[in-house]
Design brief:
This protein is α+β, with helices and mostly antiparallel strands and 92 residues long. The protein contains 2 helices and 4 strands.
């Protein structure tokens, strides 16, 4: 069993102890991943289908933990985290 299949790349523990998990679609050869906070990229722990927007927003109301798996191997010499933020503005 591949580590990427067994353990999520990112896990968010949020409001009401909702646990959301992100599994990459494929293993990155460069070791870099991009994780988006959109409901179709996340699953609630123990479920195999994408979460709902309502569940994602509930979890994000009060984030308690963000757990990130930094490596698939034991030979890690360096790890870094880059966070970017963007917003979408609807014009009516």
């Amino acid at each position: 069993m591949d580590v990427g299949d067994a353990f999520p790349l990112v896990q968010i523990v949020g409001n009401f102890r909702v646990v959301l998990e992100h599994f990459p679609k494929k293993i990155s050869t460069s070791g870099r991943y991009e994780v988006r906070l959109r409901e179709d990229f996340w699953v609630e722990r123990g479920k195999s289908r994408p979460t709902t927007r309502e569940t994602l927003m509930t979890a994000l109301q009060k984030v308690q933990e963000i757990l990130i798996r930094f490596s698939d191997t034991a030979e890690v010499t360096r790890a870094s985290l880059e966070v970017t933020y963007s917003t979408l503005i609807y014009i009516y």
